[in-house]
Design brief:
Strand order of the largest sheet: 1-4
Order of helices and strands: HEEEEHHHHHHHHHHHHHHHHH
Helix content: 55-70%
Shape: globular
Strand content: under 5%
Radius of gyration: 25 Å
Amino acid sequence: MLSFLLSRATRNTTRRFLNPSPSSSFSLFNNTAIVSSGFSEDCSSKTSAIVPSVNQVIRSYYWVTPNNYLSCENQKSNFNLRFVGRFSTLSSSKNNDDREKGELLKEKDISWIDLYLPRYTRPYALLARLDKPIGTWLLAWPCMWSISLASSPGHLPDFRMMALFGCGALLLRGAGCTINDLLDRDIDTKVERTKLRPVASGLLSPFQGLCFLGFQLSLGLGILLQLNNYSRVLGASSLLLVFSYPLMKRVTFWPQAFLGLTFNWGALLGWSAIKGSLDPAVVLPLYAGGVFWTLVYDTIYAHQDKEDDLKVGVKSTALRFENSTKEWITGFGIACIASLALSGVNANIGWPFYACLTAASGHLAWQIWTVNLSCRSDCNRKFVSNKWFGAIIFSGVLFGRYVS
């Protein structure tokens, strides 16, 4: 009889989890909630936890994946929960602190994708990393620098062109992530940070990912066709870098350099979209500055995965530099600022640019000197902060060109 009651309670709780309300609370058996605490990867065992709680608020719902924490297709029991989620205790009894120390679930952060997008679109949104906009910012800033630098002295940049490049950055970054996940699906399953990506986890098949890639590239082509002929050819040539970059970690310790060449192509394309040609004296130092900047932030980022990279046999500058990383990225930071300064001088830009460049130098120095390369969360925090570096440089170019 007790077994029957527990089974019914678990099924009822599961149904409530699958249709959660951010403000909902629950209590079972005199303020005791019965939840599944997880399954082993092969679904051969299960455990449950009885957690006393008062007004415990649940924020959870996700989708089914064959390799995920609470997805067990072959588990023949009432605990066959068909979701992956995160329990966030927003308020609880003071008396249950000790019992809540146990791990209920491995955390999966809830984003706007989980809250607002239809269920069938979520895997594709995650494949394009729409929940992590930092990549789009890092791709877009060199474009914005270049468009602003190409504007006439005393005038604001072409905002239509900036909007066009912003959309292009979003699409191209998403396409790059899709290519990366398709090529790296076997590697991603072995890396803690990436094993839940849609293709690696089996949520999307490689064919579905390929179809989505075609959709992304078609939209990107529509944006490219809005530009002049010179820029169309220049933009199309960047696809060689986009497709080859994910393979670089297999053959060289410098994949971050190839990422820099790819992510900063907009420094060339933005200028050509305005001027119809390239001025090497201005755009090449701007491009080089962006590449050196990428070597700084992506080397910091790569330190998050260095243990996993060693296990699976892929390469990175984090593994190449090891304990000398800060010396190397300090050199890259100096080269970045020097290149940007040279580009500004050759473009005859006004004094606000150099004031902002000084501020950006301080931001870059703060990153390099304070980052804890042994702490994954700190590496990620410093990496994400680079959106502000890009914004500071953009402000300098914008106001420097306006007053020149």
